[in-house]
Amino acid sequence: MAEVKVYYEPETDLLTIFWDTPRKNQICTETDDGIIVIKDGLSLTPIGIEILSFKPGDKRIEGITVSIGNPILEA
Fold this sequence. Notes:
By secondary structure, this protein is mainly β. The protein has one domain (about 5-55). About 0% of the residues lie in helices and about 35% in strands. It contains no helices and five strands. The chain is globular, with a radius of gyration of 13 Å. About 5% of the residues are buried.
């Protein structure tokens, strides 16, 4: 089972979530709503996100879904 790591820095209101190991060669792309997608620099596979100006109860996190591993198929 994958390990998800969540970091919150209250001094800067920065929430970081990694569902894969951080890379030395990672690249970041900021979306319009202050969410930064962190990707592997070679494969461009998303490995995490950062949410700028995050406060507990932030609605931006409600729309985020992450599938790790094989999806569960319903019969």
